[in-house]
Design a protein that fits this description.
Blueprint lengths: L1 H31 L2 H7 L5 H35 L3 H12 L1 H4 L4 H14 L1 H8 L5 H21 L12 H17 L9 H9 L4 H15 L9 H17 L1 H10 L4 H10 L7 H14 L3 H18 L5 H12 L5 H11 L5 H24 L5 H14 L7 H13 L4 H12 L5 H4 L5 H4 L1
Helix pairs in contact: 3-15, 4-15, 8-9, 9-10, 9-11, 10-11, 12-13, 12-14, 12-16, 12-19, 12-20, 14-20, 15-16, 15-18, 16-17, 16-18, 17-21, 19-20, 20-22, 21-22
Length: about 450
């Protein structure tokens, strides 16, 4: 023990002597140098010290990167575990980037234009400028009136009975939906936006809800709610391919029943599960989706639901039973933690890169089918899907809820609906669904399974 103490003191003395020697040499160099050299030598740094400082800076940079990565990883874990309800609204705004989007006075100007159109101020100003744009003004006015009519129909259907959506809350919802229809006239208004806006109004102020809604539809779901709904059709074809890859037995059974996956999952995606899952599960799915900044969570959640309820689906004997059963089971998914965990951990292979490759694969067929529909050359499978999704967007009164649609589909499958008399409405909702005449001629599903 004494020897170690002595060595310690001896080493400390040697270090002190070295430091004193170094100080003396520095002082001597300062005295012997010229004035100009003295000025510049004051800023010079010992190369050994330079290397040491560089190493320190590199270590600090690596440490900062590691801390940033660890913080991001920790935040991701917290988001996947569920955001606190008190902070959910603020965090959703941060995920969407409301602060960078906000333009002061823009939301008020969108609502102020309503009075200008009603008073004819817009037409007077155009006439005073000598520009004949009355047909365009009338067309825009007609489109806006149509949006207003659809919004008024959907207001009572938006979370009926919720105390926050009283007369004052519905007025805010009306203003919010009308402002977005004016903000993005190429999209306007379509069903399911009322659920998005109503959900956001429950968590944040009205103007913040507008900018969050704009970010979700313009960025996350770009091309989903346009007139052609191309991206929505593409995603349904991508999901169908994933279902065939992950659940071949279920896919074969649905083919046997004549059921397309998009009949159920189309409204799931368009509504982002707001009118499908229980409230807590909806919020948890939205947490992850908005944090990720893409639509990957939509696919993972849909696959998780099919994994949960696929064994029950393969026991159904007709299309109506399959759609009704899946919808009712999805509505009873109360274990939100299990849903998010299965979606995240069970389907990690479903990522944005792979989805983009599949979208690029299926998009040309969708574009071709859209061109064929426009030319009237024929209707293919994708165009049937387009018809169904189009009606979900433009005819909200036909698809108030997927349960009503499933009931009507069940009637068709059971032969309770006259095909010749009422086939028009059913074809509009389900893309030329004709399964009742096929089911009777097919063998028992248990034998095929």
């Amino acid at each position: 023990m004494g020897l170690r103490v002595e060595k310690k003191y001896l080493s400390a003395g040697r270090l002190q002597s070295k430091e004193s020697t170094h100080l003396v040499t520095v002082e001597e160099s300062k005295v012997s140098a010229d004035s100009d050299d003295e000025f510049y030598d004051a800023d010079k740094v010992d190369p050994s010290q330079e290397v040491q400082s560089g190493d320190v800076n590199a270590e600090i940079g690596n440490t900062n990167q590691e801390e940033t990565y660890s913080l991001k990883e920790e935040l991701e874990c917290l988001v996947h575990g569920g955001l606190p309800m008190a902070l959910r609204g603020e965090l959703w705004q941060a995920f969407v980037g409301v602060g960078a989007r906000r333009v002061e006075g823009y939301y008020g100007s969108l609502l102020a234009s309503e009075g200008e159109l009603e008073d004819g101020g817009c037409s007077d100003s155009l006439a005073s400028e000598g520009v004949d744009e009355r047909p365009e003004v009338l067309s825009a006015f007609s489109a806006e009136e149509k949006c207003k009519g659809q919004i008024e129909k959907d207001l009572p259907r938006t979370f009926p009975g919720h105390p926050a959506l009283d007369d004052v809350g519905r007025n805010a919802l009306r203003r919010l939906l009308l402002a977005y229809a004016r903000h993005n006239p190429t999209v306007g208004y379509c069903q399911a936006m009322n659920f998005f806006a109503g959900l956001l109004l429950l968590l944040m102020p009205e103007e913040n809800a507008f900018w969050t809604l704009a970010g979700i539809i313009d960025d996350y779901f770009d091309g989903y709610f346009s007139e052609e709904m191309i991206e929505s059709q593409v995603d349904q074809l991508v999901l169908e391919e994933l279902v065939r890859e992950k659940f071949p037995k279920l896919a074969n059974h649905l083919d046997y029943l004549g059921v397309e996956v998009a009949w159920v999952t189309g409204p799931w995606f368009l509504s982002i599960f707001t009118n499908v899952l229980p409230w807590e599960s909806v919020l948890r799915v939205w947490d992850v989706l908005l944090f990720d900044g893409n639509r990957v969570m939509l696919f993972r959640t849909a696959l998780a639901l099919l994994e949960f309820y696929g064994p029950a689906l393969v026991t159904t004997k007709d299309a109506g039973d399959a759609v009704t059963l899946l919808q009712s089971l999805a509505g009873s998914t109360f274990d939100s933690s299990q849903l998010v965990l299965t979606a995240r951990m069970g389907y990690q292979s479903v990522n944005e890169t792979g989805l983009q490759d599949l979208r690029n694969k299926h998009r040309p067929s969708v574009m071709l089918s859209m061109e064929e529909r426009a030319k009237g050359l024929g209707v293919c499978k994708e165009s049937g899907l387009a018809s169904k999704l189009y009606n979900f967007k433009r005819e909200p009164e036909q698809l108030v809820s997927i349960n009503d649609s499933a009931d009507q589909m069940s009637d068709v499958a059971d032969g309770d609906v006259d095909q010749e008399g009422d086939s028009g409405d059913v074809d509009d909702m389900y893309g030329a669904l004709t399964v009742n005449s096929e089911i009777d001629s097919l063998p028992d599903p248990k034998d095929q399974v």
